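Quiz preparation item.
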C-alpha cells in the first residue's frame, strides 16, 4: 500500500514539473520556444535553418533605394553579420539564383493603414508605424501574423519583408558616414537603474531631433532574424510599468514597449524615444536570445563518422588506423576549435581548426602501433571547449577494439 502511494506521488511530481516548465517557458519569454505562443505554431523555433541568410534591397513603385540608404542599411546589417557570420546580400555568389530570405523595401502610406485587410473582423494596426517587419516562418512579433492578411489584400506578394515608410524619411537621419558615430556623443543615462552610456545626437547636429535610420534598420533586421522585443528590465514583454516608461528601457536595440494580444498593434506602445536623437548598437541583451542555450543561432560540432581498423600483427604488433570526420551541424560557423583522438585516455593526436562552416565537415586521420589487448579509441571535438554550441552533449564518439587472444 505504501509503495502504491509513493508511485502516485512520483507521478504527481512529474506532471506538476512538466506543467510548470511549459507555463514558465510561455510567460517568462523563452525565445527558443516561440511556437509555444498561441497562433504562432507554424513558426517553429523562429530561426533560419539554412545558411547563408540572403537579404535583398528591392525597389518598388513607392520608392527605389538610393546608394546612401543602401550603404546605411548594409552597415547596420553588418553588425548582425559580425555576430552570425552568415548574412549575405543577394548579389553575393552564395545568394545568386536563390530567393532572398529577407527583403528590404519602401512603401507608401496606403500600406501603413489600420485595416481589416482580409475582412475577418480583426484589424491590423499599421498607421502608427514608421517601419515594420512582416514575418514568414521566422520571427513573428508575438501573436501577430499579418502575412496572410496582407497577401490576400494584395498589399504584399511575399513576406519576410522589412518595410520602411517613405513619408517618414523626412524625419530620419540617413548617416552619410554610417561606419562612425561622430554625429553622436556618449552620454551617461540610467538604464534599469544602472548608469550606462548611450549615444545621443549632438545638439544642433545633423542627427538631432531625427530618428536614426541606422538604428531603425538594425531593429527591424533583428525581427527578421527571429528576435522579438527585449521585454525591458525584467525581460518580460507583458509587464511594462507603465507602458511607455523609459525606466523600462534596457538600452538594447530590440527594446520597445509591450505586446498583449493578437494584432493589437497599438498596444505595442512604441517607445517614444527609441532611435530618436540617438543611435544604438547591439548589446548583450540583444545577443542573449540569439546565441547560447535556447538561442536561435549556434554552431554545433559533432563526430559524424568514426572507423577504426587494425592491420597485423607483425612481430606481435598491430597498426591501428583511425579514420573519422567531424561536422558542424549548427546554423552558424564554428571556430576555432581542437579535436583529439585518444587510446585508453592517452593522447594520439590533437588537431586545431580555424573554423568550420555550417554543414561542412573535416576528416581526421590517426595511426598508432599497439600490442595485444583492449583498446578504447575516443574522438572528441571541441576538446578545449572553446565553442559555445547548441548541443554540448554530442562531441564524443568511441570504439572498443580487442586485439590478439
Ligand atoms: Zn520592433
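Solution:
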Amino acid at each position: 500500500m505504501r509503495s502504491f502511494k509513493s508511485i502516485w506521488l512520483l507521478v504527481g511530481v512529474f506532471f506538476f514539473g512538466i506543467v510548470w516548465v511549459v507555463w514558465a517557458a510561455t510567460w517568462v519569454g523563452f525565445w527558443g520556444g516561440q511556437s509555444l505562443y498561441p497562433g504562432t505554431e507554424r513558426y517553429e523555433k523562429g530561426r533560419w535553418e539554412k545558411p547563408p541568410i540572403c537579404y535583398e534591397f528591392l525597389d518598388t513603385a513607392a520608392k527605389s533605394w538610393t546608394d546612401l540608404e543602401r550603404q546605411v542599411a548594409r552597415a547596420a546589417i553588418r553588425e548582425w553579420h559580425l555576430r552570425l557570420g552568415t548574412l549575405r546580400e543577394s548579389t553575393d555568389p552564395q545568394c545568386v539564383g536563390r530567393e532572398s530570405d529577407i527583403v528590404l523595401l519602401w512603401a507608401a502610406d496606403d500600406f501603413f493603414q489600420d485595416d481589416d485587410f482580409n475582412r475577418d473582423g480583426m484589424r491590423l494596426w499599421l498607421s502608427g508605424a514608421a517601419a515594420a517587419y512582416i514575418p514568414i516562418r521566422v520571427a513573428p512579433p508575438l501573436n501577430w501574423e499579418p502575412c496572410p492578411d496582407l497577401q490576400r489584400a494584395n498589399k504584399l506578394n511575399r513576406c519576410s519583408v522589412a518595410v520602411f515608410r517613405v513619408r517618414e524619411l523626412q524625419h530620419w537621419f540617413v548617416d552619410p558616414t554610417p561606419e562612425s558615430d561622430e554625429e553622436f556623443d556618449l552620454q551617461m543615462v540610467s538604464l534599469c537603474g544602472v548608469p550606462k552610456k548611450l549615444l545621443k545626437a549632438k545638439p544642433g547636429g545633423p542627427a538631432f531631433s531625427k530618428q536614426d535610420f541606422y538604428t531603425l534598420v538594425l531593429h527591424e533586421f533583428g525581427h527578421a532574424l527571429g528576435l522579438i522585443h527585449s521585454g525591458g528590465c525584467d525581460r518580460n514583454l507583458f509587464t511594462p510599468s507603465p507602458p511607455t516608461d523609459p525606466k523600462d528601457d534596457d538600452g538594447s536595440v530590440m527594446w520597445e514597449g509591450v505586446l498583449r494580444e493578437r494584432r493589437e498593434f497599438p498596444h505595442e506602445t512604441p517607445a517614444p524615444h527609441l532611435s530618436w536623437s540617438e543611435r544604438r548598437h547591439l548589446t548583450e541583451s540583444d545577443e542573449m536570445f540569439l546565441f547560447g542555450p535556447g538561442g536561435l543561432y549556434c554552431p554545433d560540432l559533432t563526430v559524424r563518422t568514426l572507423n577504426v581498423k587494425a592491420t597485423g600483427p607483425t612481430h606481435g604488433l598491430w597498426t591501428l588506423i583511425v579514420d573519422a570526420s567531424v561536422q558542424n551541424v549548427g546554423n552558424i560557423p564554428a571556430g576555432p576549435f581542437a579535436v583529439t583522438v585518444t587510446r585508453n585516455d592517452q593522447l594520439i593526436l590533437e588537431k586545431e581548426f580555424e573554423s568550420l562552416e555550417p554543414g561542412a565537415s573535416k576528416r581526421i586521420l590517426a595511426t598508432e602501433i599497439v600490442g595485444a589487448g583492449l583498446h578504447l579509441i575516443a574522438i572528441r571535438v571541441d576538446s578545449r571547449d572553446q565553442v559555445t554550441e547548441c548541443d554540448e552533449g554530442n562531441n564524443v564518439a568511441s570504439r572498443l577494439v580487442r586485439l590478439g587472444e
